[in-house]
Amino acid sequence: DIQMTQSPSSLSASVGDRVTITCRASQSISTYLNWYQQKPGKAPKVLIFAASSLRSGVPSRFSGSGSGTDFNLAISSLQPEDFATYYCQQTYRTPRTFGQGTKVEI
Amino acid sequence: EVQLVESGGGLVQPGGSLRLSCAASGFILSDQYMDWVRQAPGKGLECIGRTRDKANNYITEYAASVQGRFTISRDDSKNILYLQMNSLKTEDTAVYYCAREEPRQGWNFDYWGQGSLVTVSS
To answer: What is the pLDDT of residues B43-68, one digit of tens each?
Structure first.
């Protein structure tokens, strides 16, 4: 199975901050990398697919980059509704695997 | 509007069985790859099973943790996806989500059910 490793596991930030989350794959996955946001008690929602494509309806302050094994999710100006847990996921091979999550706290 | 609505969760004793349902609307279930994802309390996301679409013969794949105990099936006439869970263990306690894969957008999981809590305890 492809292992996905996110860093950091958690971070504290303030409204208006720029935040970057990193995801590393145990082997090359091209750009088959997605980012999800999950709030407590809710299902995850996709933000970014194929490493850098913004899902329709997602605010433009979210952006993704990377290819191969190293990827980033950036939030340009953190808003109150962005405090959540973020997961990366590879869809290059089955089983689809997720990173362990990054909790963004105030 | 695409929707996935889950049902069937609850409390079950170790060794017992449970079947989860995922009712799909707004799209034709047989045309889509579908997945079951679980999340143990306070933990991350784990894909436990996947079924291909009708064109690919509904081939299923399972995580090692559930292989031989869990089975994914569909009722195309009702547009419902199922997860049959047998020989349940305490470590199967989790919220279970069904999710749709979108092959045109990097196979991301573009729609999710609301989640169904399964608690395995004596």
So the answer is: 999 999 999 999 999 999 999 999 99
| pLDDT recorded at residue B53 | 96
Q: Which of A46, A71, A92 to mutate to test the interface with B (most CBs of B within 10 A)?
A: A46
What DSSP string describes B26-64?
Answer: SS-GGGS-EEEEEE-TT---EEEEEE--GGGTT-EEE-T
Q: Which residues of B touch A (CB under 8 A)?
A: 35, 44-47, 50, 61, 63, 97, 101-102, 105-110, 112-115
Is the separation of the CB atoms in A22 and A69 below 8 Å? no
Do B44 and A97 make contact, defined as CB atoms within 8 angstroms? no
The pLDDT of residue A106 is 83
Q: Is B108 close to A91, i.e. CB distance below 8 A? A: yes
Question: How close A11 comes to chain B (CA, Å)?
Answer: 17
The torsion of the CA quartet B87, B90, B95, B97, rounded to 10 degrees, works out to -30
